[in-house]
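From: lab user (bench 3)
To: helpdesk
Subject: output format question, protein + manganese (II) ion

Hello, I'm new to running complex predictions and I'm not sure whether the block I got back is the full result or only part of it. Here's what I submitted:
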Amino acid sequence: MAQKENLNLKRESIFKKAKKELKDEIYSYNKKYMDFLDESKTERLFSKNAIKEAEKKGFRPLDSFSTLKAGDKVYSQVKNKALILFVIGEESIENGLNIVASHIDSPRLDLKPQPLYESDDIAYFKTHYYGGIKKYQWVTQPLALYGTVVKKDGKVINIAIGEKEHQPVFCISDLLVHLAAKQMQKKANEVVTGENLNLIVGSIPVEDDKVKTAVKEAILKELQKKYDITEADFESAEFEAVPASKARDVGFDSSMVGAYAQDDRVCSYAALEAILKVEETPKRTACIILADKEEIGSYGNTGLQSRFFENELAEICVLLGVENSELSLRRALKNSACLSADVTGAFDPSFPDVFDKTNSSYLGQGVAINKYGGSRGKSGSNDAHPEFLAKLRDCLDSEDVAWQTGELGKVDVGGGGTVAFMLANYGMDVVDCGTPVLSMHSPFELTSKADTYMTYKAYLAFLSKFD
Ligand code: MN
Ligand code: MN
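Helpdesk reply: Thanks, we reran it on our side. This is the complete output you should expect:
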């Protein structure tokens, strides 16, 4: 508790009075964060790289344990995508876990199952966008392509093109402004349609006059030669086109991070770093969930509407040797506390109309807690209880975490959902707590380095100290 409580709530940029030591920490944290982003452009890669870091810190796969005890560090990966990490606490699992739940999927352009076609001597890949995007933001952008192809015999071929300097990129064309008079009259959501989002992938035809679609033929030959894949192999593959750019410092003062997919890899990275820093055996079991499919409603067996987390926790209960594992599982879930670790929209001074200035989160003022989200009268929201929020305030303040509250926009202007309510379904206390972002879901999302760092500090405080 504070010795003398302030009458007014004070909000200001963390950078304003940050000592050199804190600034150094902020900048070195963000350097690592940005490098990690560049290496983790898909949920598969994020998951894989997270495991690499976790193993360095002594985490081992769940199925390698025959029993579990306090202090054990465990991870469990689901379908090469979702990932859960645990540090087993001293207390009985029935007392609940401290959970930070984020998502590692991000808006992007997926290839359709049969993507390749040719039109007027240009070869294209058809795409189907994933998650909520403003489609016009994705044209005339260098895009990289990541693919996982599984052949009928089970052989897995991983493809990544467009990130290295010497590699080609792909792109989607837009209408030249000289002929766009009619297009410019359209509504923004019609300017570029979903079926316009066709990736240009080549333009050299094969020499054979008998082949009708000679550029397509040339691309297929190339794909076979380079990757040993045929057109039919696209049927058991997934390809994601993502911005080919690297994370960049933004501003004269380099105080911000500009990068693709900070929603929600900024919170996912913070959660990962936090659980890797839980050094001593915590009182309550610490857990982070890096979920998939959040951007399309958390469906599927790697999304949090499924039981993948519950299934892994059931295994943990059994390995801990509890008497009644089903009952222990229920109690563990019910007594848990959870931060739904997802980004929120920061107040954007260029578009002030949609925000309530007194209830927005601001760039540079710390990690943001959103008591509720949803839309049209909090609908679809997990509205967190003050009893839980009070304990959280105390925990964050005791650990010198700079945090703020906020709401996503003015009442009835829009809204958004997170995984918060799905975890609350188990009976645990949940609140949204994540980094404020400008230009969310765009190819170049913007965060404050102070906020990304405070997000990590908040998760570390919560995982190791919340009680
Ligand atoms: Mn998100
Ligand atoms: Mn999102």
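A quick orientation on your result: The radius of gyration is 23 Å. Let us know if anything else is unclear.
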